[in-house]
Design a protein that fits this description.
mainly alpha
């Protein structure tokens, strides 16, 4: 359900912004949702920054149920790492910490240490 929400938001943005050029490395909805052009419209549709990240994390769990280290997953992971630090001192730092903790717990569950 979350993946469909993100995909729909990305598709709506693309249909009304024909000039948008997807990054050469990937046109997956996950990567596009993280672009500076598209992300604000999804944040607005989701109802705010924390809601966006909860939806995106849920979508990632749908797209990559085993946290496969694809290019797209690595892009998401790098944004999560940045988000954790950048949110400190913000109005939603607590919620971002919850999202981070959920992401870390899920990764440990699906990709236990070798």
């Amino acid at each position: 359900m979350s993946a469909k929400f993100i995909e729909t938001c990305v598709a709506e943005y693309l249909s009304s912004h024909l000039e948008f050029k997807a990054p050469a490395a990937s046109n997956h909805s996950l990567v596009l949702a993280l672009t500076l052009a598209i992300q604000p419209s999804i944040i607005a549709a989701a109802g705010g920054v924390p809601q966006f990240w909860w939806l995106l994390l849920a979508a990632v769990k749908e797209w990559y149920p085993n946290a496969e280290p694809t290019f797209e997953y690595k892009v998401f992971a790098s944004h999560m790492v940045s988000l954790g630090g950048l949110s400190q001192g913000s109005d939603f730092a607590g919620e971002i910490t919850e999202i981070w903790n959920d992401w870390q717990a899920w990764q440990r569950e699906v990709r236990p240490a070798d």
